[in-house]
Write a structure and sequence with these properties.
351 residues; alpha/beta; 434 Repressor (Amino-terminal Domain); Rossmann fold; 3 domains; six-stranded parallel beta sheet; six-stranded mixed beta sheet; 13 helices; 12 strands; elongated
């Protein structure tokens, strides 16, 4: 039978199907389908046997037919369209409003319903999973859920959803992610600092923030400093506690003339009486392209609306490929930042 099917495929151009593989093994086509998808309900021995038969027959999945089959199966089990959800902590709801709107537009263009789902810390992750599933949510863009800048451990029913995170804030499990390129953002700020004539730019950030971005801030800054003469190098200030007081001491002792950090650090210094840019210039690492409320800051700007589009596109790819749960090999998509001028940096002598 296997030889006959191969002959038909090669000589007559007929695609080898799941039913052909199933017939050659004497099992159902649904067993073959589950085995090739790596379903846990199929034993390892059977999976290997099915894969070997599929390879021998020259079976190759047809992605368009697979997507159509999933669409038909979904349509038979629900009366509404599949839904995507942006899941976000209440402290970020306002900040993510433009991001959410961009995600909604792209989701609807792809034929999905969409909702902004605000996380409630008082409710269990199991209950959140039940609510999301009951609403027909198939895919989730997961944003930070708690206000503390710490790695998070949400315990959603991952197998029920396709998931992508906005940023690397989930410690476990490891999930697909889309984010701004923090390494590029830091290097861009350093490049602009020298273009504006500053001689001793320095980095200030929280240790937990640096951990959340995979140590990219430290790596970008330290590797850049190694290209400078030793007397021109400034040590980064990456600390967890007392950042305000430590930053003041560090600025004075290291002769820092431009500070690179997140906007809240600039606000802390201004609250202590520092004038920006008169006393020290400031380049922000966390400007959002859609946020018009912080246009006074110069700095690296991430296109959050494009990140929203990429997140929805990635979810759509997962759903149409029949992928859900925790990926075996998580992927990260990084979007480079761009520079935005602002009032916190001015040209200085020698620029």
């Amino acid at each position: 039978m296997r030889t006959l099917v191969r002959s038909m495929s090669g000589e007559q151009g007929r695609r080898v199907t799941l039913r052909d593989v199933a017939a050659s093994l004497g099992v159902s086509h649904s067993t073959v389908s589950r085995a090739l998808r790596g379903a846990s309900s199929i034993s390892e021995k059977t999976r290997k046997r099915v894969q070997a038969a599929a390879d021998e027959l020259g079976y190759r999945p047809d992605p368009m037919l697979s997507a159509l089959a999933r669409y038909r199966n979904d349509g038979a089990s629900r009366s509404s369209k599949a839904r995507l959800a942006l899941v976000v902590g209440p402290h970020l709801r306002a900040r993510f409003s433009a991001f959410s709107e961009a995600a909604r537009v792209h989701a609807e263009l792809l034929g999905y319903d969409y909702e902004l789902y605000v996380w409630d810390e008082k409710m269990s992750a199991r209950r959140h999973s039940q609510i999301l599933k009951s609403r027909g949510v198939r895919g989730i863009v997961l944003c930070p859920l708690i206000q503390k800048l710490e790695m998070e451990h949400p315990k959603l029913a991952w197998d029920d959803f396709s998931v992508i995170t906005f940023g690397r804030f989930v410690a476990e499990p490891k999930l697909d992610c889309v984010s701004e390129n923090q390494f590029h953002a830091l290097r861009l700020c350093l490049q602009k600092a020298y273009e504006f004539g500053y001689k001793r730019p320095g980095l200030v950030t929280l240790e937990r923030t640096n951990i959340r971005v995979g140590d990219r801030y430290r790596a970008a800054f330290d590797s850049f400093m190694l290209t400078l003469p030793e007397e021109s190098r400034v040590p980064a200030l990456i600390t967890e506690h007392g950042i305000q007081d430590k930053a003041e001491e560090w600025i004075e002792s290291e002769g820092v003339d431009l500070l690179i950090g997140h906007q809240f650090i600039g606000e802390l210094l201004e609250a202590k009486g520092w004038r920006i840019p008169e006393d020290i210039a400031f380049a922000a690492l966390d400007k959002q392209g859609s946020d018009v409320s912080v246009t006074c800051y110069a700095g690296a700007t991430h296109d959050d609306l494009e990140i929203a589009r990429l997140a929805i596109a990635a979810l759509n790819d997962q759903i149409t490929s029949g992928l859900s749960g925790v990926p075996k090999s998580p992927k990260t998509v990084l979007l480079d930042t761009y520079w935005s001028d602002g009032k916190t940096i001015v040209e200085v002598g020698g620029a």
